[in-house]
Amino acid sequence: MRKNHIHIVTIALLLAACARDAEIKPAKPKQITAAAENPVLRHSSTYNEAEVIAALAVTVTDGTGLGAVLARNCWATELNRPRVREACVLAWATGNEDSPELDDILRQHGSQSRPLAIAVIRKGSPLKKLAFTELLALLAPLSSDPAWLRARAISAWLSANPDPDPARKQDLWEAVRLPDEVPDPASLGAAYSLASQLGLTWEEELINRYCIPHAAGISQVRCWRFLSALVNPGTHEGPDRKRVPFRPSVYESGWTLFARSFPERALLLEHFWR
Prior knowledge:
By secondary structure, the chain is an all-alpha fold. It has a domain at 1-129.
């Protein structure tokens, strides 16, 4: 039972850290003080693993993260409990406090585990300083995660390392690893944005992959699902309409099926095509 509890709170910590579209709000002073004074976090070695990770999960979900001093101390002292050690750094990475020392730790060890790789992506600053080979190594522990996480990491790295050579662009695109079946909307949208950022032919290939000219029925639904993932819900901006001249007709059976199955996404596309 104890192992199951540790597993559950670790997953909660990872999911909170991965929240892609959640608004990051500054932590309130009382929250920061409470985290710093929490005896479980101040003296983690005297508590069991499940208690420490649960306390760390709270700092993530309430928006405080873990302070740099406590995170550095945890990394230095929890050598025999790597799950606690990694969770401490991940909890720090979700907060707003900077630490060059912890940045260096993440750069050196980020590719060694999934929690540390997520911490690198969540923090951002150490990610942008990675060499190309270090970036590819960082993505390896995330191979079973949704494609959007890898695409997000690559896109952030490119913002600080623009215009790699064509061979490296190919390697980066292959690292996204979109599944053959229609992936989740977040992964589709992130992959399309990355394809545009890389500036080669993959943007058009993605459209051709999911939107077949003169499609009907389920094939139309597949295309609509793809296009809906490319539209920003806040601005209703999306791909260049000229790039998808063969979009399915809203008067055909595929649209009816799509609108019944995904009503919110259907409304989003209706706004986009106006």
